[in-house]
Amino acid sequence: MIRMVCRNKVADFAKWKSVFDSHSEAHNKAGLSLEDLWRGVEDSNEVVFIFKVADLDKAKAFISAPDAKEAGDRSGVIEGNYWFVE
């Protein structure tokens, strides 16, 4: 199965997590199922999370959509990376 591994540096974890959680339905519609989420030990505003990917094309469309950028801005994402792996 394909996974999407994501790393975000955020301004405030609590604010980021609130926005992230509010998008769970959108994640599901994009074929993304949260598998795990971690915070950095030395920097709790460093977040790594993994989604199971049911449909690679839907997942790519989701992360490329303007809504994803808006949600990132609203949640305080400073920088982020993602990788599709299997």
Strand content: 35-45%
How large is the count of helical segments? 4
Tell me the span between the first and last alpha carbons.
6 Å
In the CATH scheme, what's the topology name? Alpha-Beta Plaits
Count structural domains.
Answer: 1
Which assembly state applies to the chains in this document? single chain
The CATH architecture would be 2-Layer Sandwich
Secondary structure category: alpha+beta
Q: Which radius of gyration do the C-alpha atoms yield?
A: 12 Å
Q: How would you portray this structure in words?
A:
This protein is an alpha+beta fold and 86 residues long. Helix 1 runs antiparallel to helix 4. The chain is built from 4 helices and 4 strands; from the N terminus they run E-H-H-E-E-H-H-E. The mean pLDDT is 95.
